[in-house]
What does this fold into?
Amino acid sequence: MSCGRKDDCERREDRDKRDNCGRRSGCGRRERPIGIGLPRNCCTANTGCSFDGNLRRVKAEPIYVQKVYDTALFNLQGLRTVADQHFSPNIGRNARIVRVLDIRCKKFFNPNNIDDPKNLVIGQDTTLSGAQFVKDCKGDDVTVVGPDGLCSEKLVFADTQFCDDRCEGTPIFGTQKLTVTGDVVVEIDVEVCDDCDKRCDVTLRGVIPIGTMRNPLVLTNFFELCIPSVEDGAFLPRFTEICNADCEPRLATNNIRRDIRVDRDGDVRVNLMISICITCEKKIVVPVQLCVLSTGFPELSPEIAPICESFPTLFPNQIDEESIRECKREQEREECRREREREREREEECERERERERECERERERERERERDSKRRCGSRHGHRNFALSEESDTSDIADDSEDDL
It folds into this structure.
């Protein structure tokens, strides 16, 4: 819609400049608005592991872990179409969208409620052929704790005698049905033009449901895995599967006029096609003990200046023969260090004792010096008094002689 008169448009543009575009922050200028929050900085991680190239530090270590005996990777994709999906915010009366700059999609997740039905979840239902999952007395699959800390692994049993005699693995087959429920968040960066041809960039946001518990998005695939012997080991093989989903949105017909509708009040509705891209990996794992090459435990530096003199360790010391010898040598070095420290303390104590004796000797010397000064002062006073007495005596003798002469 065009302006009725040129001066009306100019007055409206001046008013929009004064109130910072009136309807939207930053409209009418392409620079990003300056926020009051601090910028979000990125970071780099510190694993604590380092290797200086010295092979003498490399040792063979036994570890008790889960070994992958067989694995298979699958890529699945599903499609969900959405019509007249509402997006916010409102772009203002008589405004129109002239260009789509970018379309993004991410999974919805509510960290305050992991059971939120809007969280995008991949449900897995797997059945086996040629083997079976071990069940308990209630008929439920027996699950054990996996490396993720959850009961995510199922025990598998099959008759492996035929392939064991040939030193080979036994093939098993499976069918997996994936059910995708929850929502995704779609953001569309668009260029908006108002009725005075003033343009600005706006980000539209919408939460789009992909599936519900009653109407999920269902995907199916088939797989084959190879399991080791169930007789020649202390543990039954375990089946585990991990999946992750991503989404790729696009306009339904890649046409703004057909796929994006803006009513007179500025509400935006969009027709979309959302591709759900899923990667699944299935594994057969067995707990084993492996020998690996290691440079030792990670060594980290504390981030805060310590107040305590010492801190406990997080892991116990090694107890193999070489480590015990090294520990004893370290103890001997520590004992020698402590003995040198004690010897140094004794020498410092002796030095302090000698310093105290020298100080006492200097104090006695100063006392003797004060006594000698006192004696000298006393002797000087006695000499002056005797001299005065002798002068008086001489004077009296002279007076007597004068009287005799008269």
